[in-house]
Amino acid sequence: MGKFILRRVGVMILTALCLTFIVFFLTNLYPNLEKLAKTQGNFRMSDEEVATFLNNRGYLQPMVTKYGQWLGVLPGYVIEGTDGKVRARCAAPGQPIEEAPTFCGVLQGNWGFSTTIKKDVGGIILEKLGLTGILMFWVMLLMVPSALILGVLAGMREGSRLDRSLSTFSITTTATPEYVSGVLFIAIFASSAVGLKWFKGTATSAMDNVTFENFFLPVLTIAAYGMGYIARMTRASMAEVMTSQYIRTARLKGVSFPNIVMKHALRNALIAPFTVIMLQFPWLLNGVVIVETLFNYKGFGWTLVLAAGNNDIELLLGVSVISVIVVLVTQLISDIGYVYLNPRISVS
Amino acid sequence: MNKDALSWGAIFGQMIIQFAPVLILMAITFAVSIYFKRRLGLYGKLFDSTVGMIGLALVLFWMFTAFFAGLFDMVATHNPLDQSAMMKKALPGTPYTKLIGTPDPNAGAYYLLGGDNLGRDVFSRVIAGSIKVILIAPFATIFAFMVGITLGLPAGYYGGRFDTVLSFLSNLVLAFPVILLFYLLVTPEIVQTGIPVYMAAVLFIFPLVFLVILWNSRYHTQPMKRNVFLAITLVIGIWVYLGIAWDADPLGVISFPPNVLVVFVAVVFVNSPTVFRIVRGLVLDIKTRDYVAAAQTRGEGPWYIMLWEILPNARGPLLVDFCLRIGYTTILLGTLGFFGLGLESESADWGKMIIDGRRLLSANILHIAIPPALALLTLVLGLNFLADGLREESLKD
Lengths: 348, 397
What we know:
Strand order of the largest sheet of chain A: 1-2
Oligomer: heterodimer
Low-confidence stretches of chain A: none
Radius of gyration of chain A: 26 Å
Number of strands of chain B: 2
Helix content of chain A: 55-70%
Structural class of chain A: mainly alpha
Strand order of the largest sheet of chain B: 1-2
Order of helices and strands of chain A: HHHHEEHHHHHHHHH
C-alpha cells in the first residue's frame, strides 16, 4: 500500500509539473506578453519599445529559465536594463538588489503580484479559496445525500415505475448545464415577473453573510448538475448488489425488504459512488466558475475568469496551480479510498 | 400600421405555423419509421421505448429546424443580425417596426419572442443558433471519436510503453479544468501564434489515418480493390484536410473561418481523451474473447483484428457514448459562448444569448434569456434520452 501511494504521488507531481508548464507556456507566449506590456506601459508603444520593456523585466529569457525562476528552483534574474536601472525578480519594491533573496518562486511561497487586483497572488488565492470552500461545502451537503437517496431508491427495485421516473429525473439534471438551470432558477424564483421572489438572483451579499435567501440558488444550481451523475452510478451499483447471491440468501431467510436494503445492500453499494463523488471535483470546479460568474459571487472561479480575461499572468498561474492540485489530489484520494473500501482489490 | 401585440395563444399559433415544415417532416419520419420498425434494426427498436422516442423527437426537431433554416431560409422570421431601434427589449408578440429606414418587406410582421437588448428578433436568433450547434457539435464529436479510436485501439491491444505514455497524456488533458483550457486556447492572442492551426493539423490527420488503415487492413489481400479505396480516400481526404486545417484548399471551395476552427479544435481536444479512455477500456475487455483468439490463430494482422473484429463488437457502448458526447459538446459550445470566447460579438450563439439575457433578468425581462436556455436544454435532453433509449434497447438482445 505504501509503495502504491508513493508511486501515485510521484506520477501526481510529474503531472502537476507538466500541467503548470503548459499553462506557463501558453500565458507567456509573445502576443500575450505584448498585450501585458501595452497594458502596463502604454498602448501606443512601438514594437521595439515593447521588446525593451519586456527584456528589462526578464520576460524575454528562455521559457524554461523563466519557468524555473517562477517555480523557485533557478535563481531569480538580475538584469541591468537599457535604461540603466537594475531590476531583480526577487527584490520587493524599494528593496536594494543586494538584500534580495536569490530564489523566489512558488516553492518559496512567492506567488507573484496580480496586475488586476493589485495585491499579492498568494493572499488573493487564500481569500478566494475560502469563499469557494463555503460554496463547495454547502453544495456537497446538498448534493451527496440527495444523490445517494435518489440512487438507492431507484436501484433497489430495478425496472419499477419508481426506478423509471427517478432515472428520467437524474438524466434531466445531468442534461441541464449550470448556465441553463441557473438562468431558469433565477427567472422562476428570483424575478418579480413570475412573482415568487423566494430567493435573491445574486450571491454577492453571501460573501459577507451567508443566508438561505442569497445562497440557495447558486448551491442548488451546482448541486443539480452533479447530482444526476452520482445518482445514476449509485443506482447501477445498487441494482448490481441487489441481484447478488448473498442478498438472495437473505431474502430466502426471510429478512424484510427494508432491512435487506439498509443492513445488507447499502454498504456494498456505496463503494462505487464514493470514487465517483471524489472524481466529481473537477466537474464541480467548472460548475463553480460558471455559477460564480452567473451569480456574481467573487470566489475562486470568478477570479479565474477575471485573471484569464485580463491576461493577469501570475494570478492565472496561481489559480491554475491550485485547481490542478485540487483535481489531482481528489483523484489520488479516490484511488486510495477505492482500494481501502474494497478489500477484493489488491494494489500489487 | 398600428397593430396590436399578439396574445400568448396567437404567438404559439404563429410559432407552430413557422415550424410547420419541421413538424410535417417529423411526422412523416415517425410514421414511416413506426410502420417499418421491424425491419430497421436497432433504430427500429428505438420506437418501442417511450424515452427513446421522446429523445429522437427532440433531436429530429432541432436537426430539421437547422436544416430548413440553414438551407432554405424557412423557419426564422427575421434576419438574426438585423437591429431595430424600435424593438429594443420589446415584449413577445410586438409588431415589427423600424425607426430608421423601411423594414424588409419579406420579414415577419411580429417579433414572436420579442426583441433583445439591441432590437434583434429573439426567435430568429434561437433558430440561427441551432444551425451553428447542429453543424459543429456532431462533426466535432466524430473527429474526437476518430482520434480516440485510432489511439485507443492500439493502446488497449498492445499495452506496454505506448499505452503508458498515451494514458499519461490523456490524464494530463483530463486534469485540466475545461474552462481554463478554453481560456488558454481560445483567445485572439493564441490564434495569432498559430497554435490552434498546428493542433488542427495534428488532430485532423487522424480521420485520414483511420480510414487508410481501415481499408488497408481489410483489403490488403485484394490490391486492386484496396488501391481504389485508398486513392478515393486520400484524394478527398487530403483535399478536405488542406481546406479545413490549413485553409489552403487548392480549389478554394472549402474554407473554415479561423474563429470557428479554434472552437472546433478546442472542443475536439477536450473530448478525445475521454473517448480514448473508453475505447481503451473496451478493447482491454474484448481482446480476451474467443473470436479474437480465433482471428489471431488464423494469422490475421493486428490492425485487422482491432478494426474489423474488436471495433464492431464495441459499437453498442460507443454509439451510446456518441449520443451523450454530442450533448456534452453542445454544452461545451454553450459554455464557450457564455464566456464570449471564440465568436464574433454579433453572431447568434445560444450560450452568448443566455449570458446577455442574464444581465436583464434582474430587470424582470425574461424573454431574452429563457428561449435560448430552453432550446439548449431540449436539444441536450433529447440526446440524453436518445442515448438512454439506445442503451436500453441494445441491452435487450
